[in-house]
């Protein structure tokens, strides 16, 4: 699948993969800062943003999409950074294609399975929204507010709403495919005996429960060189909560020949 992407800067390639419900737009500010040091590619994963839609949605096809992207761009290897859904995609890609993964950065996700019913609830809520009766973003926000009291989450989800050519609203997300495959998103990364021996950095939010101490042994088993760093004051949305700390940690890690984060 040919993914939509944004490109900034020159130098060693750095590929950024967003999380579920996200898109490349979410990472543009940080991408432009890293572009002073690297050639940065920010991708829209399938069924998200401006990339094509498909009924298939699992980590295997997401990793294959990344592989195809690198072949198309003639990138023999790259540093891969992924957040949440993108982080698990980065893990599987690194395990399957270690020769193409120079360094790996995973933001607030572990290789284990998760139980988060809210993802399916969000998808069902969006699917049930009658866009023919929505005439403004204020109306759409009011509709979601009855079920999602957190303003930041509502606004994040509504970034996926756009005006169609007929001046009505439509979703950028392939909601039916995401809804049907949401359980696949929550699955663990289960490699067939592979490990990634290259440098790896796991960044976890201080106020997030996505990476706990019990996850560290599994991370180390699959990624022996991994270091886990806690981002102060951050929830799961690390890049929004503490972008400066994230920027510096990633920059130090990618530029350090030893592959060790500070």
Total number of helical segments?
Answer: 10
**CATH superfamily caption of the largest domain:** Alpha/Beta hydrolase fold, catalytic domain
Order of helices and strands: EEHEHEHEHHHEEHEHEHH
Q: Main sheet?
A: 7 strands, mixed
Describe the structure.
The longest helix is centred in the N-terminal third of the chain and has 14 residues, at 59-72. The strands form two sheets. The chain has a seven-stranded mixed β-sheet with strand order 1-3-2-4-5-8-9, with helices on both faces. It contains ten helices and nine strands. With 262 residues, it is an alpha/beta fold. The protein folds into two domains: 5-114 and 189-255, Rossmann fold (3-Layer(aba) Sandwich), CATH 3.40.50.1820; 117-183, no CATH class. Strand 2, helix 1 (28-34) and strand 3 form a beta-alpha-beta unit.
Write the layout of secondary structure elements.
Blueprint: E1 5-8, E2 13-17, H1 28-34, E3 39-43, H2 59-72, E4 78-83, H3 85-96, E5 101-107, H4 117-128, H5 137-145, H6 151-158, E6 161-163, E7 169-171, H7 175-185, E8 200-205, H8 216-222, E9 226-231, H9 238-241, H10 243-255
Parallel strand pairs: 2-3, 2-4, 4-5, 5-8, 8-9
Antiparallel strand pairs: 1-3, 6-7
Helix pairs in contact: 2-3, 4-7, 5-6
């Amino acid at each position: 699948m040919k993914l939509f992407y944004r490109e900034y800067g020159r130098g060693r390639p750095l590929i950024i993969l967003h999380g579920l419900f996200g898109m490349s737009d979410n990472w543009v500010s940080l991408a432009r800062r890293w572009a002073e040091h690297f050639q940065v590619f920010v991708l829209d994963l399938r069924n998200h943003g401006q990339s094509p839609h498909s009924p298939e949605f699992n980590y295997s096809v997401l990793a294959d999409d990344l592989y195809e992207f690198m072949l198309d761009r003639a990138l023999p290897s790259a540093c891969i950074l992924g957040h949440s859904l993108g982080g698990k995609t980065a893990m599987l890609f690194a395990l399957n294609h270690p020769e193409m993964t120079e360094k790996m950065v995973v933001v607030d996700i572990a290789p284990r399975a998760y139980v988060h019913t809210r993802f399916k609830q969000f998808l069902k809520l969006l699917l049930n929204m009658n866009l023919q009766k929505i005439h403004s973003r204020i109306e759409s926000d009011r509709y979601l507010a009855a079920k999602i009291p957190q303003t930041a989450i509502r606004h994040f989800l509504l970034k996926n709403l756009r005006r169609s050519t007929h001046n009505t609203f439509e979703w950028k997300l392939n909601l039916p495919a995401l809804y049907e495959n949401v359980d696949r998103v929550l699955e663990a990364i289960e490699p067939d005996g592979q490990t990634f021996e290259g440098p790896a950095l796991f960044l976890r939010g201080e106020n997030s429960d996505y990476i706990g101490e019990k996850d560290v042994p599994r991370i180390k088993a699959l990624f022996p060189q991994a270091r886990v760093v806690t981002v102060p004051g951050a929830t799961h949305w690390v890049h929004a909560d503490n972008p400066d700390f994230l920027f510096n940690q990633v920059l130090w890690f990618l530029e350090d020949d030893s592959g060790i984060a500070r």
